[in-house]
Amino acid sequence: xxxxxxxxxxxxxxxxxxxxxxxxxxxxxxxxxxxxxxxxxxxxxxxxxxxxxxxxxxxxxxxxxxxxxxxxxxxxxxxxxxxxxxxxxxxxxxxxxxxxxxxxxxxxxxxxxxxxxxxxxxxxxxxxxxxxxxxxxxxxxxxxxxxxxxxxxxxxxxxxxxxxxxxxxxxxxxxxxxxxxxxxxxxxxxxxxxxxxxxxxxxxxxxxxxxxxxxxxxxxxxxxxxxxxxxxxxxxxxxxxxxxxxxxxxxxxxxxxxxxxxxxxxxxxxxxxxxxxxxxxxxxxxxxxxxxxxxxxxxxxxxxxxxxxxxxxxxxxxxxxxxxxxxxxxxxxxxxxxxxxxxxxxxxxxxxxxxxxxxxxxxxx
Length: 365
Fold this sequence. Notes:
alpha/beta; six-stranded mixed β-sheet; three-stranded mixed β-sheet
C-alpha cells in the first residue's frame, strides 16, 4: 500500500534541501524563488527497529523496509489561488497527494533570502493556508449551482444532491470562518470526497530550525507547534542542514553523528513516523530466509486486505493467515519456538491486522 506526502511551503524555506536529504533524487536547491517548478518525486525508506530485530533472528538474504513517497512541490506565494507564481499549477500538484508536509522556516540566515523579507513562521503558515482555503471556496462555489438545481428533482439523484448541497453549504460557512475543512465531521467530508478539497488533507507542520536549535527548539518552532496543536495536525522539528549532512554518511557514521549531536532520531525518521500515524497506517511483517519485509496497510484492515498489499491474488484467493505477535516472536526467537509455545495463531478473513504482526498467508491459486 503506497501513500505520498506533498512538501509545500513558501519559497526558500528549505523544502528542496530537506527533500534532498530524504531521497536519492537530487532536487535543485537554490537561493531564489520558484527554483522547483515541476514536482520532484523520491522514495524514502522508513527505518523501523522492529524490522532490524526480526532480521537479526532470521538472517535473510534481503531486508526490505516499507517506503514513503515524497513529492517536492514548488513554493507557493500570496495570490497563488489567483495564479500568482504559477500558483494554479502548483495547487493542482497538491491535490494529487495523500497528506501535506508544510515546511515552515524558523531559522535565521541573512544569506538565504525570504520571499517576504523577514522570518515570521505564523504569518508564513497563514499565507499558505489562506491560498488553500480560497482554492477550496472557489471549487465549492463552482459546484453549488449545479447541485442546487439537481436537488430540486424528486428522483434518487435529487435526494443525493440535497445531501451534497447541505455539505457544500456547511463547508463553505466553515471555510469562510478561516478554518480548514479537515476539522469538520467525517460524514460531511465523505459527501464531498469527489472535490478532493485541499484543506481536507491531513497536514504535518515541519519547523525547519537552525543547527543550534535542534535540541531546545526556538520561539519560532514553538509557535509552529502551538499552531499544529490547535488544528490537531502533526508536528515535527527538523534542521535541514543536519539532515543534509546525515544524508552523506554511511549507516555506522550516521549513528555516531546522531549520538554526538545528542539526537535520538533524525528528523526524517520522525517525519516518516508522523506521516504513518496521521494517515492511520500500520506495519506488518513477513519473515523468511529469502527476505524479511515490512508492509504498510491502513489501520483496521482485515487479513485479506493485508494479503492484497503483497499481491491481488493473495486477497482474491485468501484462505487463512498464520500470525505471530512481534513481542512473542522476539521473545521466542523463531517461528518454530512460537509454534511450540502455542503463540502462532491461525486467523481467518475476519481477523483485524495489528501493528507489528508477523504474518504468512495461505491462498488458493
